[in-house]
Amino acid sequence: MKLNDKVAFVTGAGQGMGQAIVRRFVAEGARVVAVDLNREALAESLADLGEKVLALACNVADSASVADAMGQVEARFGGLDIVVNNAGVGALDSFLDTPDESWARVINVNLGGTFLCAREGARLMVKGKRQGTIINLSSTAALTGEGPSHYCASKAAVMGLTRAIARELAPSGIRVNTLVPGPTNTPMMAGIPDEHMLALLKNVPLGRMCETDEIARVAVFLASEDASFMTGQNIAVNGGMAFI
Ligand SMILES: NC(=O)c1ccc[n+]([C@@H]2O[C@H](COP(=O)([O-])OP(=O)(O)OC[C@H]3O[C@@H](n4cnc5c(N)ncnc54)[C@H](OP(=O)(O)O)[C@@H]3O)[C@@H](O)[C@H]2O)c1
Predict the structure, then answer these.
(1) d(CA 225, CA 235)
(2) Residue 151 annotated in active site
(3) Which of the listed residues 21, 24, 37 should we mutate to test ligand 1's pocket, taking the one with most ligand atoms within 8 A of CB?
(4) What does the alpha-carbon distance between residue 169 and residue 174 come to, in Å, rounded to a whole number?
(5) In this structure, are residues 18 and 86 in contact, taking their beta carbons and an 8 Å threshold?
(6) What value, to the nearest 5°, has the Cα angle with vertex 27 and ends 230 and 122?
(7) What is the pLDDT of residues 9-30, one digit of tens each?
(8) What angle do CA 59, 32, 138 make, to 5 degrees?
(9) Mean pLDDT of 136-143
């Protein structure tokens, strides 16, 4: 078991990659605080994992909500070892027609939420003198530009954020890396029009979409001692679609 007795905080855990990451982490011995916007749906989707998972409502874009969730982590587990900033949103706006509200929502959730959970999680790690690790989800769209402008901008910014905080947190023994998926079979992709999807997949040398467990297995690696000398890195899981 690679994550025995570690305490992990996983955002956007009710479906897609987040749920797959929670399941892999539990299988590797971790206790997981799973957070999402809708607590009932989240708790139901992870009910079979029993007491290994604590399901909490948390809006990662809201500073007070994140602070409250981290307070519950400290009260229940006494500290934190792993944060996975997975919660994210997309939107199908073309650049010229992007409403201000849509720009703000995508940036606030994808970048702002990553910042808030990384900061609050790192504060807990430093306070507890734990040599923790943070994994931030970006996207291959940030490298290729094949996606809406706000989404690509937010995911590119996550890479910069990761590198900066990796340097700052290294003296505390905290590692921070970016996991960069390609097109992956999740509810987020369900809304993408078929012709756009086919065009995207033509650019994937391995010729298919990624499955969520293929992301979760890399998240386990990054969170574990196997990645003990890795920090500030972009780790692409994209079937060869783009190189970092
Ligand atoms: N799927 C892909 O092809 C792909 C490729 C590259 C990168 N990614 C990135 O990988 C991550 C996971 O993607 P996914 O496809 O698994 O997404 P998904 O299926 O849409 O799941 C994302 C989860 O995050 C939750 N969420 C949204 N806003 C939130 C907020 N403010 N606070 C807390 N939770 C929130 C969603 O809740 P609701 O459903 O209630 O909104 C949902 O449960 C995202 O960061 C995404 O951008 C995805």
Answers:
(1) 16
(2) yes
(3) 37
(4) 5
(5) yes
(6) 40
(7) 999 999 999 999 999 999 999 9
(8) 55
(9) 98
- Give the pLDDT mean for 127-148: 97
Q: Is the pLDDT of residue 206 over 90?
A: yes
Asked whether 12 and 215 are in contact (CB, 8 A), the reply is: no
Residue 191, pLDDT above cutoff 90 = no
Q: What distance in angstroms lies between residue 11's CA and the mean position of ligand 1's atoms?
A: 9
Task: Give pLDDT tens digits for 67-85.
Answer: 999 999 999 999 999 999 9
Residue 168 structure tokens: 């700052």
Within 10 angstroms of residue 235's Cβ, the number of other Cβ atoms is 18
Q: Which residues contact 62 (CB under 8 A, 6 or more apart)?
A: 116
Calculate how far, in angstroms, residue 205's C-alpha sits from the geometric centre of ligand 1.
24
Fold of 7-235: Rossmann fold (3.40.50)
Question: SS in 3 state form for 190-228?
Answer: HHCCHHHHHHHHHCCCCCCCECHHHHHHHHHHHHCHHHC
From the CB of 177, is ligand 1 less than 6 Å away?
A: no
117 lines ligand 1 (CB under 6 A): no
User: Which helix (H) or strand (E) segment is 35 a member of?
Assistant: strand 31-36
Asked if the model's pLDDT at residue 40 lies above 90, the reply is yes
17 Cβ below 6 A of ligand 1: yes
Domain positions in the chain are 7-235
